[in-house]
Fold Putative hydrolase/coenzyme F420 biosynthesis associated uncharacterized protein.
Amino acid sequence: MSTGYVDWNFAKTTGSTLVPPGPSVSADEAAAEVAAIRAAARRAHGPVAETSRMQTPDDAPEALVVDRPTWIATNADSMGAMLGPAFDEIVAKRGGTPNGLGAQIGGKVTGAEAGALLAFMSTKVLGQYDLAPDGTPALLLVAPNLLQVQRELDVDPEDFRAWVCMHEETHRVQFTAVPWLREHMIREARALATDMAPDPERVQELTSRLREKLPELLRDGSGGITDLVTTPEQREKLAELTAVMSLLEGHADVVMDDVGPAHISTVAEIRKKFTERRKGVGAFDKILRRLLGLEAKMRQYRDGAVFVRGVQDKVGVDGFNAVWTSPETLPRPLEITDPDAWVKRVHG
């Protein structure tokens, strides 16, 4: 699969080649872990739906428990489907279609870059609700990462699986209980990708500026490369999308912790150790996250939990659920850190 700009099949091959293996386990241990994760995901649905007070279809497909290469392949397909229309629109605006040897080489280069990034991310992700723009959405749980983090934290395996599944199941509930949300996210992401794509004549300029600005991009609190390649208007649009992502992540964190005490006896220990682990990422991880702007985004996602708690303290869970009414009731960027402003705007 290639868009002309990115050879996504090559991205899959590159990612699968570069990704490190997961924890060392026997075939029987791996099968038992997969079965245990799948069972934990199945048990999570009822408590999450009850706690969030969100109505979901009863026929949701079973969660997919995957390894790292499968996660890479699935996300390469989704990224290709997400960005393909944006690339097509960019090409149409520029009056041409990428073709020939140069386009093939360029597609391989960007495919390799995408594959390397996917390989890195595949070792960090515990689970994900894949929006699958041109396919069937699915809840993915990455078995080797769950096992690796559980061992690193030295917490109860069953409780840890349940805790992670509560968070990821909340994402599935969000998108299945709110029918318009998936298409809204896909549409906004595609529009932003189209708008942010640099013209060919800007690429050399941006490369030069990247060399000059690299120390700034690596500083604590930097927005990463996006600070360099975006206009103020684009950053405003990106902030709007980030606010929604912060809402989704924050809501999932709140639900998983609210569900926890009734179903997970060691939830407080798990949360404490997991939060400490987030602070202890290695030097390379920190550099890459800052360069990509991920570190700043992670802080914003934590603001999402503060937003959810703040709103629920004011108007309760049902009052908070007004956030899912329409795109207009989603929190604006400044409201993520000011729940009272959202309550005033939406509830009066």
